[in-house]
Design brief:
The complex is a heterodimer of chains A (about 130) and B (about 300). Chain A is mostly helical. Helix content of chain A is about 80%, strand content about 0%. Chain A has helices spanning about 1-50, 60-80, 85-110. The longest helix of chain A is centred in the first third of the chain and has 50 residues, at about 1-50. The model of chain A has no long low-confidence stretch (mean pLDDT about 85). Chain B is of the alpha/beta class and about 300 residues long. Chain B has nine helices and six strands, in the order E-E-H-H-E-H-E-H-E-E-H-H-H-H-H. In chain B, the strands form two sheets. Chain B has a four-stranded mixed β-sheet, sandwiched between helices. Chain B has a two-stranded antiparallel sheet with strand order 1-2. The relative contact order of chain B is 0.07. The mean pLDDT of chain B is about 85. Classes of the chains: A mainly alpha (about 130), B alpha/beta (about 300). At the A-B interface, helix 1, helix 2 and helix 3 of A face helix 7 of B.
């Protein structure tokens, strides 16, 4: 019977020691949720311009910029699919914003209204 | 984190609780009186009989006849062989001290203790258990010490010899009956069950208990710190893995951007520009090999160089 009490005591002590770590991890996971929402928002915004953008662009400069935007869109999607941490989502958002910048430049080149590009966030800044 | 005196509140609370617990356990609660080894031996011997005779005794009291005479009366006789030596801590003489100690353990009986003292005299001491006089046996305990002893001395003056003092026990039993029949409405009280005393720690054992308690506390703290450190180590390892994953993803994102530049170059205006594009493509392929080799620092350095060259 005493072994049962010893086992219970060990479990209680271990739970007390691990609880702050587990709750800290949960808090970190919840904190990254905002980053995930922002990154997915930018990704979908970029997707709108890439998939439903102008077809048969004759301007070579604008076509190159739109091609770059598509590449950034695909890259951002790839990053989002594997993102697990706040830094991953921040990186994906930065790539999507780069794509939006390329779309904006292409639309200026074509003389059409484009997206408003948010201030570029450097992933190194977190 | 809220603090008192620069210390986290929960820690202050834990220390206060611990101190209060120590005061309650060690300060307020009085520890049980330690029982001597001799008393334990005697009481153990009295569990099934009314007479305990230590081996090697002088044999002045016939133990078997005493048992038959006493029957189940609330009387126990202790016949010691070893001399009881004086001790500075004793308030009375050694025989009375040991008699009282035994009487405390056979609380509802009277005790007749025969033993040698440090002068070599073999004599009796009479004492009464603290619960001998009770509601069912409302007698005066003093009668069974001074009163009975007076009767014993008178009745045995001419009956004891240097080799046989059984008459002392015999007279005590008869006088015991006289007093109890006179004072107790329930007749002669019967001997109660003798329960061995619980083990009580002596000074070294008390220190062992303190050390054991300290060991339990230290072990608990050590276990807590160990589990916490292990958890922290695992968490840090997870953080390092996540950081490496993020770094690899960042390199891949930069590689994709560079691939777009390398794979879709502007039409070259001259041979120099064409050679430059070919050189960029070759360096990009070499960069892919560096990335695959799993050296992120070198890959990042080469990537930065190539990005600057591609501008």
């Amino acid at each position: 019977m005493s072994w049962v009490w010893i086992a219970v005591a060990v479990v209680v002590v271990a739970a007390g020691a691990l609880t702050p770590l587990l709750t800290g991890r949960r808090q970190r996971a919840l904190a990254s949720n905002d980053e995930a929402v922002a990154a997915r928002s930018r990704y979908h915004q970029l997707g709108h311009y890439v998939e439903d953008g102008p077809e048969h662009v004759t301007d070579e400069r604008a076509a190159a910029l739109l091609r770059t935007a598509r590449e950034r869109w695909l890259t951002a999607g790839s990053l989002l699919a594997r993102a697990t941490t706040e830094a991953d989502f921040t990186q994906a958002e930065a790539v999507a914003v780069e794509g939006l910048g390329a779309v904006a430049d292409a639309h200026v080149q074509l003389g059409r209204p484009g997206p408003r590009v948010p201030r570029r966030r450097d992933p190194e800044d977190g | 984190m809220k603090r008192w005196f620069g210390v986290p509140r929960w820690l202050v609370g834990a220390v206060v609780l611990g101190v209060a617990g120590c005061v309650l356990v060690f300060g307020v609660a009085s520890p049980p009186e330690p029982v001597s080894a001799l008393a334990r031996e005697v009481v153990d011997g009295l569990r099934t009989t009314s007479v305990y005779e230590q081996p090697g005794g002088p044999g002045l009291i016939d133990a078997q006849r005493s048992r038959e005479l006493i029957g189940d009366r609330a009387i126990v006789v202790v016949l010691l062989a070893e001399p009881l030596l004086d001790d500075p801590t004793y308030v009375t003489d050694p025989r009375a001290e040991h008699c009282a100690e035994i009487a405390d353990l056979v609380a509802t009986s009277v005790v007749i203790l025969y033993a040698f003292d440090d002068r070599g005299e073999y004599d009796a001491e009479y004492c009464v258990g603290p619960e001998f006089a009770n509601d069912a046996n409302p007698v005066d305990p003093q009668d069974y010490v001074s009163g009975v002893v007076g009767g014993v001395h008178l009745g045995t003056h001419f009956r004891v010899t240097e080799t046989d003092r059984f008459a002392e026990v015999e007279e005590y039993v008869y006088t015991f009956d006289h007093y109890t029949m006179r004072d107790s409405p329930n007749g002669v009280p019967r001997r109660g069950i003798v329960v061995p005393p619980p083990p009580t720690p002596d000074a070294p054992q008390a220190w062992q208990v303190v050390l054991a308690l300290g060991g339990i506390v230290a072990g608990t703290i050590a276990l807590f710190v160990l589990v916490r450190a292990t958890g922290g180590l695992v968490a840090r390892r997870g953080s390092r893995t996540a950081a490496a994953h993020t770094r690899a993803e960042r390199i891949n994102a930069r590689l994709n951007r560079l691939a777009d530049t390398v794979l879709h170059p502007e039409p070259p205006n001259n041979a120099r520009a064409a050679r430059r594009q070919a050189d960029l493509a070759a360096r990009y392929v070499a960069l892919l090999a560096t990335v695959e080799s799993g050296a992120p620092a070198e890959a990042e350095r080469a990537l930065t160089e190539l990005e600057e060259a591609a501008r």
